Amino acid sequence: MTSTFVKNVGGDDGEGSAGNGLLCFTNCLLAMENGSLVEKDLWIDTSKGIIVDSQKTFFQLRERPSRIIDLGGAILSPGFLDIQINGAYGFDFSIYTGNDEEYVSGLTRIASRIVETGVTSLVPTIITQEQSLYPKLLSLLRPRKTKGGANLLGWHAEGPFLQLAKRGAHEPTLIRSAPKEIESFAETYGPELSATPPVVNGKEDVYVKIITAAPEIPGILSSIPALTRPLLSSSSSTSSASSTSSSEKKEYGVTFSIGHSIASSDIAAEAVKSGARLITHLFNAMPQLHHRDPSIIGLLGVSPAFNSSPSSPAKVQTKTSGSMTPRVAGVKEGKKTGIEVVKKKLNLASSTPGVVSEAISELPTPPGSPLLNPHTTAPSRAASISNLDLLEEGWRPYYGLIVDGIHSHPNSVRLAYMAHKDGCVLITDAMAFMDPHLPDGIYPWRDGKNLVRRGYKLFIEGSDTLAGSAVSMDSCIQNFARFTGCGLGEAIKCATYNPARCLRIENKKGTLRPGADADLTVIDPVGGDVLSVWVDGREVWSRE
Fold first, then answer.
1. Among the CATH numbers 3.40.50.20, 3.20.20.140, 3.40.30.10, 3.90.960.10, which is that of 80-438+470-509?
2. Cβ–Cβ under 8 Å, residues 402 and 357
3. Model-level pTM greater than 0.85?
4. What is the three-class DSSP state of 249?
5. Domain locations in the chain as residue ranges
6. Which residues, in sequence order, are CB contacts of 501 under 8 Å at separation 6+?
7. What per-residue confidence (pLDDT) applies to 501?
């Protein structure tokens, strides 16, 4: 099925001065925060670029939209978020040639083109670098809006504080520990580590900062509480900075992610207790599940038997019936066609056999049972259970999943989702070769090596070693629905609300709440294809 668009049913085109800037999407299924699809209209203010409360706008402000778009039964979703992406469309976030303009041009190219995959916000990810490069790269990766393109929300530094044995594609000579604890982080990343969010129209905007590190490395675990301490406002932050210069007293507002690690269950649990909120590309670059010590993967299955309280966290509830959304002139009741097709089931996809990898691994890696860092004392069973005591069900971290059918078997994807649905975050971990229009073939990479692209699969020529992914976010969502058997609405939640909540930006991104940014993706309810994309209340891409 292909949804049909009937634009401007009841007003002008919304672009000129004749309209009031209000736009109503009708005859659509809204992708809700709980994973459901609800037949309901959505109103946005195109002049402010935000979603508005239709009832308040109509009944209190006495205004109705000057423009209406009939989506013909399509799904209207928050724009997709990709919080781990290494590059796309020929540009690699980790490569800096010394030319700022060239680098910014690459950022703009990705932002303007990636919207075709439904992504309206992304967090550029850089792998382990020379220490001197971090301040420059992170300053260039400050949040920025691009005209007609996706929003760049900040940065994800994957490294250099990683476990050498699980380094993946990271240069081993650049991997380091944190002997001075939080001060080592400040010295490595520079001023952007403690930078405050930009101010837009008098209000602080989003500034995402993610660090992937291995908690068993010396100096890392003790640094997590300081790194994850929420940022104060710009004014209070300035006042705080004047009173002390100690790195331990600063606020950084970092989302700490456990990754490229061989942490034991006890150390992983301690990291979450200390403030770690995310697991980087689950199953990859970490010990595999072992029944005696499930390590990082085991965080998804923290047993309720170890809870310090029998109570469960409150569930997010979304009203799905009894809506009092006012009718808009020009749209007749009873004309909601195309809704029933959402119930159509997708066929199960086949897996890709014979692929075993951790992105790139040119070093021997430890066995499934994790090996403790030589600086770490093996915890006693009593200590382990004490750590799990504080990991109530609501404390379980979010986890990133590369759902390309290559990095993780479909059965593994389903197993993780069944264990912890609300924590699932779809990521692409895409490389510069992610481009839906790029044909399969052999392409030059770096260090004199060539990469072979074969569908979503990227591997080094002459080997079976995987080198990141070429999958797009819309394909991840479609794969995820097939692999897990979940509904399309639930799959969409894993690329919208879940990542936004992980980053604590769910009031602005990944949601259809009134006041949130009007970043929207229109989706075919049968196949999950992206039909059109809106950023800040303006259409930036359409399949038509």
1. 3.20.20.140
2. no
3. no
4. helix
5. 1-77+514-544, 80-438+470-509
6. 398, 510
7. 97
Both structure tokens of 391: 């990991």
Q: How many CA atoms lie within 13 A of 482 on its CB side?
A: 20
d(CA 286, CA 41) in angstroms, rounded, equals 44
Whether a cis peptide bond, with omega within 30° of 0, leads into 160 is yes
Which tens digit of pLDDT belongs to each residue from 135-151?
999 999 999 999 999 99
Q: What is the spatial distance between Cα 467 and Cα 86, in angstroms, rounded to a whole number? A: 11
Among residues 119, 125, 166, 127, the alpha carbon closest in space to that of 146 is found at 119
Q: How far apart are CA 140 and CA 61, in angstroms?
A: 42
Judge whether 178 and 219 are in contact, CB under 8 Å. Answer: yes
Neighbour-count burial for 326-358, b at 16+ CB within 10 Å, e otherwise: eebeebeeeebebbeebeeebeeeebbeeeebb
List the Cα angle 21/25/29 in 5-degree steps: 155
Pairing of strands 466-469, 520-523: unpaired
What is the C-alpha to C-alpha distance for residues 279 and 504, in angstroms, rounded to an integer?
Answer: 16
How would residue 340 be classed by pLDDT, with cut points 50, 70 and 90? very low
Rounded-to-integer distance, Cα 497 and Cα 479, Å = 18
Three-class SS of residue 246? coil
Question: How does pLDDT run across 358-395, given as a tens digit for each residue?
Answer: 444 444 444 444 444 434 433 433 334 444 444 444 47
